[in-house]
Amino acid sequence: MRTLSETFDAIVGDFEYPMFIVTTAAGGERLGCLVGFATQASIDPPRFLVCLSHNNRTYRHGRDSGWLAVHAVLAEAEALAELFGGHTEDDVDKFGRCAWHDGPHGMPVLDECGNWFVGRVLDRLDAGDHDAFLLEPVAAEAEPQADFTFHRAKRIDPGHEA
Ligand SMILES: Cc1cc2nc3c(=O)[nH]c(=O)nc-3n(C[C@H](O)[C@H](O)[C@H](O)COP(=O)(O)O)c2cc1C
Predict the structure, then answer these.
(1) C-alpha–C-alpha distance, residues 7 and 50, integer Å
(2) Which of 47, 51, 125, 156 is geometrically suited to a Cys-Cys bond with 85, CB 3.0 to 4.6 A?
């Protein structure tokens, strides 16, 4: 018989959801990683929740930045997902390997992603091995696109284990 934890893992491992690349800037550093734990959390006012692993450099160096840029990953942007999910900024200059520009509040915006918003961090909650960041969108751009989703992203070997 399965344990509770095995059953829970089976349920959540089967979910399908869009993948995001979350970037930020802090202490003169640009940071960013692939994120699956993210969801809209309120309609009015608009709010979004992003979870960052305590192990990731994006969290360790960027948690107090006050702003996060959330990019929906295009279905065809697998290489970008691999760059941000399969490598850590501890070892690799990710922003030297992709096109980006300075966006609102100094957040690095990835040129390959047409759908992105910058969120102001309203609150941060210790959620276990991740922290949950509650965001208020303050700037956004949108283009119709198909998204890169979890079942394709699962084969990427994460730069840091959660
Ligand atoms: C399918 C998949 C989902 C992931 N989801 C998250 C997530 O929700 N939050 C997170 O902080 N890291 C997540 N990661 C892991 C980071 O993207 C990865 O460890 C990255 O290399 C960390 O980079 P950094 O150390 O430069 O921040 C995920 C990775 C993969 C492959």
Answers:
(1) 24
(2) 156
**Cβ proximity of 68 and 108 under 8 Å:** no
Q: What is the pLDDT of residues 39-75, one digit of tens each?
A: 999 999 999 999 999 999 999 999 999 999 999 999 9
158 falls within a domain? no
Q: What is the pLDDT of residues 74-126, one digit of tens each?
A: 999 999 999 999 999 999 999 999 999 999 999 999 999 999 999 999 999 99
The structure tokens listed for 123 are 């609150």
- Which residue among 22, 39, 53 is best mutated to probe the pocket of ligand 1, counting the most ligand atoms within 8 A of its Cβ? 53
37 lines ligand 1 (CB under 6 A): yes
- Is residue 24 in contact with ligand 1, taking CB distance under 6 Å? no
- Tally the domains of the chain: 1
What DSSP designation does 96 have? G
Domain that includes residue 77, residue range: 17-143
